[in-house]
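The material for today's practical consists of a large collection of protein records. An example says more than a description, so a record of this kind follows:
***
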Amino acid sequence: MSGPAAPPPASAAASSEPVGGPSSAVSQAASPVASREAGVTGPAAGGDLLAGLDPEQRAAADAPLGPVCILAGAGTGKTRTITHRIARMVADRGVAPDQILAVSFTTRAAGELRGRLRAMGVPGVQARTFHSSALRQLQYFWPAVAGGPLPRIESSKIPIMARAAGRLGLRPDRAELRDLTAEVEWAKVSLVTPEDYVRLAPAAGRETTTSADTIGRLYGAYEEAKREAGVLDLEDLLLLTAAMIEEHGWVAGEVRSRYRHFVVDEYQDVNMLQQRVLDAWLGDRDSLCVVGDPHQTIYSFAGASPRYLLGFARRHPQATLVRLVRDYRSTPQVVALANRLVAAGPRAALVAVPSAGPAPVWLECDTEADEATAVTARIRTLLARGLPASRIAVLYRTNAQSEAYESAIGGAGIAYLLRGGEKFFVRPEVVNAMRLLRAAVRSADTDRPAGLADVVADVLGALQWYPHTPAVGTGSERERWENLAALHRLAEDLAARSPDATLAQFVAELADRATHEHLPTVEGVTLSTLHAAKGLEWDAVFLVGLTEGTLPLVHARSAEQIEEERRLLYVGITRARTQLVLSWSLARTAGGRARRPSRFVDELRPARRGARGGGAG
């Protein structure tokens, strides 16, 4: 901790969630709810907060303070369970809301937790990601710890990595640079230093096209270039926060006095650095509730490990262990397929709650183009039957597979949303719309429609948007209309919840959503990789491109890598509520090299009963 621009060695890493600062400042900055008795300002005590939970959810929510491990299968209501547990802690167990820190892995999930807790009368709980928590702590403590301002945070490593590579005489192309950057990220979250990379990376089974010695030197050059630039990367947020807690007792004391109870969602995806962050927060306390599903561990390549979830009971012998197995999302047909894929034993197998639905469809096609055409035809049928486009998803293993579906679906005049593309609130039409809405709030104009939704439609009219679906339009025009329509639907939703809501309240809600990346639903078919689809769900899901070499990927060779690919398909299957189509093509192009369906397809599909997509779709 000798200088503000130099992160500590990775071996010193462990991070801590945003706190406030010295105890007096912490208490002053805390939510007003936290300064009053929890039982008075939280959800009303005396009523049954756990009414409506199933027996397993109730057992988890009602477990005593202390270590609790919830093994929550897909669709089993884990968010509902942990929010009710938090509400019970506040209402009936004397826990102040601002002493609880709920940690998730995405801003979207953290926003959902906050929203649900607010609706339950528990607005003071902090729900954040590891990185946003660390950033807040660093911003508060760093001036006192390091004697200067916190260095700037670089959201992308690519530019600095390119400079580091140039210093070593390397000229990687863009794709190679991304791979090298990902490898350095793995090293940092795995607490591997540049000096130790050559020794530890092969032992960890890392397979790279660049030699371990070269990557180790590049890693060191990257750290040096970063220090010279006076900037930090996202892993440094955790490394530095860890060092503060471990090396400065007064920092540890303030952090641990502020946060005394912890809930960690998606615990199967925690990495070594994040676990040290959690350990630093906890100190010698054990009021920790973790929630996860080992069958959904799909980020091992990036350093995530289910061992912390699976080994929780060994580390905490007094822990309460609860299994959530009732799947409220998917039909028995979908659930049965998911159980077969992971060979779930009787204790871990999901049990479907919804009524029966259609059997999964197995769709075999001649070429990739035929597959995209056949999938598009089925999507058109679903739309014609009244299923909204936003309840349909096409999921694939790699980003490169999206183009065929963008072309086929867009060519059919069907709106789609590409996950992983430009963020909603930075799209030009959305930025312009929010600017006009803010201006309308400041305007003295009183000649406006009566209802909030009509007022918003009137403002959006300045952008040539009107609340009726355009009959024609290119893909970009249609996407622009859909993005503005999504804003209008948010106004309708707010008006339905609060009939007297004002335009100013709507603008404030949009600002909150933009800050926390809480995106509205755009009325289009979702195109997404399987990784990006985790945590989401749709009525109808198309799992496409299920061939050997694609799922599992050709690079997946070891038993552990194959099992990770299996879990990835499991995640895809369990995204479907009702309708599930699994498809593949026998060649990339007509007359091209023949290929086989995925080994997972061979395991699961009924013999000789797959549907044919052919060339006609």
